[in-house]
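Researcher: Structure for this, please.
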Amino acid sequence: MHEDKGIQIPFMNDLNKNFLKSAIEALLFASGEPLSLQDLVNHLEEKSKLIEIIIQEMMEEYENSSRGIKIICIKGSYQLVTKSQNAEYIQKLLKKNKRQSLSQASIESLAIVAYKQPITRIDIDEIRGVKSESAIQRLIERDLIKEIGRLDVPGRPILYGTTEEFLRQFELKDLQGLPSLDLFGQEYFQENEMKENEV
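Model: Predicted structure, token format:
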């Protein structure tokens, strides 16, 4: 990685740049939902390339400091979120119980949906070798997967896919950010098959 700290923004003094950063931060905070680059362009009445460069600079500043928030990009839209290391404090503030972990069945089902979507429950069951109905229901409740259509065959089974919340939870810009299955190699899958057979 090269050390290109701060992208140079031509023809803009620090005062104007800081004013735009402040405005972008305020818009993202007030929205609470992701805002597209076009949304920001419309509100700020500035060129998209300029806003894009400033947001990139802001993202680097948030990451390289002790700030409790950061900007993430999901499918080309930007959102202001808290950093994961502060989750415990936020949960206390919101008086929520510690987030329950996903079961092994839910993790397996989520991985299958993430890599094979759009996919039906029957196909998930076949890959896992067991029924996945309750795991799928749990993932829907957690807003990690959703119904994205129906397969055009008799019975018209529901097709499932991942949500924007899935991308947010796993800090992915889009599905292309998923790790390649090639990284795990055959040995990983053979080892897991052996473990499953032992249980």
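Researcher: Any notable elements?
Model: Confidence is low (pLDDT under 50) at residues 1-7, 195-199. Strands lie at 35-36, 69-74, 77-82, 119-120, 145-150, 158-162.
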